[in-house]
């Protein structure tokens, strides 16, 4: 590995890449660097040749700005996207990446949860303005708006996270295509709005059985050999920690008989005793009163998992989503975001997960008096978290995490179920039982980030295949049942033009002409219907001016293509026909006005704020052999400080010195 390190020090061989994670709370830029694979081909090390290129991120190569890009949702704000949002991030990148490298440095702007909630037309306008402004104001490589500036769905984000995790764990190193299978680590992510899972089934039988449910993910080694992985990925919108809490409160209110004279109080078993909160539903305000009943909290949460919804095929995970059976004796998982924050920041139980220990801590917390919790908080026991924002919901979120893990994914209850199975063991030593799940925010100081997975795909897509007959492009081939499009690592012949690239500009000449015609027609409409009552004889003359059939047909043709306004135009022409019949036959009052159709009510989606990882300055010591040990069970993720508490937290995650530090900051929102 010494020769790879020496090559990496040569700036002429450096390649750079930029990924901007545009989430709901803000946009974060991540800058990465790797050595030109052509120079790495000179290496005599099989480990180097049979692995993807080493990707490096320095501790200060990330920056976040707020608010989220989804807040630029009006025409006037869209015009400010560059000046008030992306210009700051791109200037930051220009200060790090050498000027002579700008033209070859790709920039990906990938939006997530916040943008998914906006109307399609607004999404397209924001994406179009983002792409055009970066092209106009920078020299960075952005050849294809549809693939480089886009909104990614939850499944794609999940696979990017899986890629980043397994890269850091060294699972892609020393890849041998002659082997039938390679081990990988499963990825779990829980944000505020959604939860996701991505993993490769360990059983070849499961892979064969669920072939149509699996996405194919391809990478390329330095030597041009293609890696192929069959990955199952699923995302559950509404099953994130914040959204689940909202559904839980809705359930309590809907199941309660509220007396208006009792101030609409609702007892919450998942809120500590003495704590209160306010909550609004259907225009009413409710006072949520904590009763601190752990057992009842656990039982009341379970229906939210919606295990009763049937799947089209077995096995069924939850909420009607089918997937391969998880074998926790072989399948190992790492959970990030809420899996880490709740366990580490409040219960000091991050890292290896033991149900018995974690469950006992959660029970004690849930049944504690709110006044005592506040005293503990003032003493610094809960990572200095805001009590109202985080501590009130901690009991619910911890229960929800356990609910998802054990009842949703069937994770064994280590320390409880496993202890019963091993009751005949002489020393009853549970510590020797393999741990199938760990929560983490970083791996040896390198933060997990789905943006790393995206840049890994791009970097390997630039390597030509060793075999000219290799037709597999680098990227993500979605499962057959998803009916989604191929997600390329770089520029792909499979990709199609983006919708927003071909959208007609609202200010085009054709659009202006249409609007002018509509305006004139509406003006005549109001003159016709209101002028006769206010202008006396003019009204009589207007009533005598009937529309020719050809004009009515033209208006009806135009109105069929124009929502809402088209309804008025069609009513107008229909009224003309009815009035003519009435006047000729003497069958009705010609002054009767037509009834205008009622428009449907708009539905509004709420966006819940989620916590984000604030620690971005960690480093990890570079292994002297520059290799990653893939032994999952022997790699601790966190350490204890002198006080016996875990040192990594949301507020501050210390870094060790390393040039391979990969900061990770993910706003959870989904």
Automatic annotation (TrEMBL):
GO biological process: CTP metabolic process; UDP catabolic process
GO-annotated cellular components: Golgi membrane
GO molecular function ontology, one term from the record: GDP phosphatase activity
Transmembrane parts of this sequence: 513-531
Record-linked InterPro entries: GDA1_CD39_NTPase (IPR000407)
Active site, UniProt feature: 157
Keywords: ATP-binding, Hydrolase, Membrane, Nucleotide-binding, Transmembrane, Transmembrane helix
Compositionally biased spans, kind Low complexity: 654-664
Residue ranges of the region described as Disordered: 586-605, 617-670
Composition bias, Polar residues: 589-605
Ligand binding (ATP): 192-196
PANTHER family in the record: ADENOSINE/GUANOSINE DIPHOSPHATASE (PTHR11782), NUCLEOSIDE-DIPHOSPHATASE MIG-23 (PTHR11782:SF121)
Homology family: Belongs to the GDA1/CD39 NTPase family.
Protein name, entry field: Golgi apyrase
């Amino acid at each position: 590995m010494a020769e790879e390190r020496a090559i990496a020090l040569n700036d002429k061989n450096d390649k750079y890449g930029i990924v901007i994670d545009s989430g709901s709370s803000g946009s974060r830029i991540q800058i990465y660097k790797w050595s030109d694979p052509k120079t790495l081909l000179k290496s005599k090390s099989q480990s180097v040749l049979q692995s993807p290129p080493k990707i490096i991120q320095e501790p200060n190569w990330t920056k976040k700005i707020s608010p989220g890009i989804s807040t630029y949702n009006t025409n006037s704000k869209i015009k400010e996207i560059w000046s008030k949002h992306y210009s700051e991030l791109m200037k930051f990148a220009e200060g790090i990446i050498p000027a002579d490298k700008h033209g070859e440095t790709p920039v990906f702007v990938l939006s997530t949860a916040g943008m998914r909630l906006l109307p399609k037309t607004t999404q397209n306008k924001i994406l179009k303005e983002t792409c055009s402004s970066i092209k106009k104001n920078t020299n960075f490589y952005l050849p294809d708006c549809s693939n480089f500036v886009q909104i990614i769905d939850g499944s794609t984000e999940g696979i990017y996270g899986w890629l980043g995790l397994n890269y850091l764990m060294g699972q892609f190193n020393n890849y041998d295509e002659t082997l039938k299978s390679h081990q990988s680590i499963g990825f779990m992510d829980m944000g505020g709005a959604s939860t996701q899972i991505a993993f490769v089934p360990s059983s070849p039988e499961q892979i064969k059985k669920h072939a149509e449910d699996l996405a194919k993910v391809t990478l390329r080694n330095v030597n041009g050999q293609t890696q192929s992985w069959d990955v199952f990925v699923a995302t559950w919108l509404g099953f994130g920690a914040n959204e689940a809490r909202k559904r839980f409160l809705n359930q309590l209110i809907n199941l309660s008989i509220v007396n208006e004279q009792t101030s609409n109080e609702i007892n919450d078993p998942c809120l500590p005793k003495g704590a209160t909160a306010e909550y609004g539903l259907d225009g009413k305000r409710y006072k949520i009163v904590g009763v601190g009943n752990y057992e009842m909290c656990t039982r009341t949460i379970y229906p939210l998992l919606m295990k009763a919804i049937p799947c089209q095929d077995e096995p069924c995970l939850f909420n009607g989503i089918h997937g391969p059976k998880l074998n926790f004796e072989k399948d190992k998982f790492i959970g990030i975001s809420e899996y880490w924050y709740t366990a580490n920041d409040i219960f000091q139980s991050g890292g290896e997960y033991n149900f018995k220990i974690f469950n006992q801590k959660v029970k004690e917390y849930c049944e504690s008096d709110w006044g005592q919790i506040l005293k503990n908080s003032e003493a610094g026991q809960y990572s200095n978290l805001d009590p109202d924002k985080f501590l009130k919901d901690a009991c619910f979120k911890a229960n929800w995490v356990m609910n998802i893990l054990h009842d949703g994914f069937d994770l064994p209850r280590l320390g409880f179920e496993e202890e019963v199975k091993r009751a005949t063991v002489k020393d009853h030593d549970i510590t020797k039982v393999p741990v199938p799940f760990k929560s983490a925010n970083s791996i040896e100081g390198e933060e997990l980030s789905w943006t790393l997975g995206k840049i890994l795909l791009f970097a390997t897509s630039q390597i030509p295949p060793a075999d000219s007959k290799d037709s597999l492009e680098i990227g993500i081939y979605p499962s057959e049942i998803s009916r989604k499009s191929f997600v390329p690592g770089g520029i792909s012949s499979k990709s199609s033009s983006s919708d927003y690239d071909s959208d007609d500009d609202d200010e085009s000449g054709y659009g202006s002409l249409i609007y002018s015609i509509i305006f004139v027609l509406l003006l005549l409409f109001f003159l016709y219907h209101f002028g006769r009552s206010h202008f006396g004889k003019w009204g009589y003359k207007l009533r005598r001016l009937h529309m020719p059939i050809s004009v009515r047909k033209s208006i009806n043709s135009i109105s069929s293509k124009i929502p809402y306004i088209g309804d008025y135009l069609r009513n107008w022409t229909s009224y003309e026909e009815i009035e003519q019949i009435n006047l000729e036959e003497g069958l009705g009052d010609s002054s009767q006005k037509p009834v205008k159709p009622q428009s449907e009510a708009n539905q509004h989606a709420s966006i819940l704020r989620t916590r984000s990882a604030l620690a971005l300055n960690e480093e990890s010591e570079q292994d002297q052999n520059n290799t990653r040990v893939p032994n999952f069970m022997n790699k601790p993720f966190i350490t204890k400080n002198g006080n016996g508490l875990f040192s990594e937290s949301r507020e501050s995650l210390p870094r060790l010195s390393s040039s391979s530090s990969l900061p990770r900051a993910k706003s959870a929102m989904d």
